[in-house]
Amino acid sequence: MAREPGNHPGSRHDPDREAHRDGIADLTGPIRLRHERAVRRQRRRLAVGLVISVLVAAGVWVVAYSPVLATRTVDVRGTSLLTPDQVTRAAAVPSGVPLLRQDTTAIASRVRTLAPVRDVTVVRSWPDTIRLEITERTPVVVFPVNGSYLLVDAEGQAYAQVATAPEDVLQAAGRAGDPAVTAAVGRTVATLPASIRGQVRTVTADSPAAVTLGLDKGRTVVWGGPEDAQLKGQVLDALLTKVGGAKVYDVSAPAFPTTR
Asked: How many CA atoms lie within 13 A of 83 on its CB side?
């Protein structure tokens, strides 16, 4: 018997096999869709990056180059001997320059040329102010000079002349016009131990190596120069305790002190 053409094994209709072939052919669609999505994502990232770059560039221009944040004011704080005008003139802060471009190191260097200034901090105070925070020197000794008083700090720096001597600051006698003498006296007074400093009434110096202290009860200390201050203080403390009746204590050579 002849077989019907539709029942021949080689020509059997298989729906599952055709669906499988159709599925493989259809993968091109999802692949193309994923590619298009990736392209769109990349374009969005590029667009966002471009916007951010433009905003950053605009911000830099506003901060560093535009007049919006330009310097208009100089604010001086912490002065006593100096006036704000004196500090402002010395600082010479360029007006109209954006705060970000101000050379704060150069400004500070100019302010430090003022003798009473021990230190200065330059602060950018947004949107338009340079603030100068001044630390002035503190006197440890004064030299009377022609009716006024020369102030000398702990570094031995003579930095100002005032009409009235500050309270609780020692007065010195000696060659006030000699920077080496004023430096030696200032450094000596600054390094005196507290136990001795409270007994000192006068300071004299004819040379940097010849500082003499006048103590209470008419006692005199030949101190010498400002070197070896700690050792001299220790030796003098011991001598004042052990040889309380002496009038002169010489610690200029602290390894070989003498009294009389």
From this structure: 3
Residues in the chain: 260
Q: Residue ranges of the chain with pLDDT lower than 50?
A: 1-3, 7, 10, 19, 23
> Starting at the edge strand that comes first in sequence, how are the strands of the sheet with 139-145 ordered?
158-162, 148-153, 139-145, 170-174, 200-205, 211-215, 220-224, 248-250, 258-259
Between CA 151 and CA 176 the distance in angstroms is 10
pLDDT at 242: 94
With b meaning 16 or more CB within 10 Å and e meaning fewer, what string describes 174-212? bebeeeebbbbbbbbbbbbeeebeebbeebebeebebbb
pTM of the model: 0.73
User: Cα 193 to chain center, whole Å?
Assistant: 30
The Cα 180–Cα 197 span in angstroms is 22
